[in-house]
Amino acid sequence: MTWSRLLPALAAALLSLAPSAPADGRPNVLIMMSDDQSFPHASAYGSKMVSTPNFDRIAEDGVLFTRAFCPAPGCSPSRAAFLTGRQIWQIEHAGTHASSFDAKYRTFMDLLADAGYHTGCTGKAWGPGNWKAGGREQNPAGPSYPAKRGDYAAGFEAFLKARPEGAPFAFWFGSHDPHRGFEKGSGRGAGKTLEQAEVPPFLPDTPEVRDDLLDYAFEVDRFDRDCGKMLALLDAAGEREDTLIIVTSDNGMAFPYAKANCTEYGIHMPLAISWKQKAPGGRTSDALVSFVDITATIHEATGIEAPPGFPLAGRSFLPLLRGGAEDVARDAVFSGRERHSSSRFNTLGYPQRCIRTARFLFVRNFKPERWPAGPGQKLAGKPGSQPGPEHGGYHDIDACPTLDFMIEHRGSAAVAPLFELAVGMRPAEQLFDIVADPGCLDDLAGDPAHAATKAELAAKLDAYLEVTGDPRVLGTGDIFETYPRYSGIRWFPEPDWAKEHPESVPEQPWLDAKR
Known about the structure:
The protein is α/β, with parallel strands linked by helices. The protein folds into two domains: about 300 residues, Alkaline Phosphatase, subunit A (3-Layer(aba) Sandwich), CATH 3.40.720; about 180 residues, no CATH class. It is built from 16 helices and twelve strands. Strands 1, 2, 3, 4, 5, 6, 7 and 8 form an eight-stranded mixed β-sheet that branches. Strand 10 and strand 11 form a beta hairpin.
């Protein structure tokens, strides 16, 4: 073959080996999300209980955020808020757990696909819930590339192989780690020691609880290893420089008084973001950011816009990411919850809203007559059946050895106050000084010395909820109880407040059909 013919052939061969990078300057987007992991459980934050070299690598390549917060302390609504960039009270059914996700709420994955991105997901996408009931043809996080737990990289590899040449991509990796249940003894089996366990102040410091924490840590490590496999695929494809990489979790750790609670360990998330081509690395930010702000940042970085009538609730921090000063002041973030599990009479939720500043967390509990974790006792079957065990109904706490220990030792002086924190009724307003009390043990709402702070934060929270159209402050909050739950239903005895004020029991046609 002559050189005149060989050179074009050689050039074509070299081009076939080159990465299929986007030609229009838009970044790829890679989201890696764990399931039930609290701040500060990453080694970049100084935790010795976990080992997360790949999270740390993203933080070193970009920005490590120390004050990132999820929009809800439960997976399904938190993910829905992230995907839409709207607060949970702005997305109807999708703001509750195990409900539906209306197609009118376009996600950033929907919008990126419309803009020519190759999109997909593996592992846990949006869910649990029924996206088909919302009129959708696929999961709100994009087309699925199935992969098994522990080998999620296979899904990303298949996704990359299916990518059209020259197209930018957006991929959602949702791990099922460290969601319960844990394999008992897995932490110590991996070489972790009880001395390494970092016991939050709201949990008893006992060998049983430490062992449970190590099993949780084992799964955090496993999520991080999966992230490493995906980063290796990204490096092999030559796509690392121009990929916006976001590593975080959906809500807090599955322990009493954390997940499903608007407490610090329920809503404060690990977050590292890199974009090597545009964002200088090795930085730490103390800025208050919410997932809805991350969504706004994705929108700005990729050039997509929210549909008319559905504005984003967050504000982009792209200038910060790129190494400059922020163009907006961030003095607070907001979060909330509605129904989590089926944990109360008529599967009613435990509605909360909160505002978090650099120092304080103010929580409004809209239905203080309800039990935050469940009343403790459920019926053995459907309505009319006999009550079950006395402490068998705390279903807004994931079943776990730590809860079992706390129930068994609830009468001891060391455990009793912590057990009450987790399952006892709460006042309509709570205030915590997070700097002094990150475990949210000391409620300052009734302290005259903090009355001005409480009043200021309560007013800010109510004003924000009103501006963003929250039914809970507009007098139509019962709408959340009308959204069907597409998961198991448990039945509970009728509480005294419902017997005394039957007009206070919301109408629930969806539930009536299940009786």
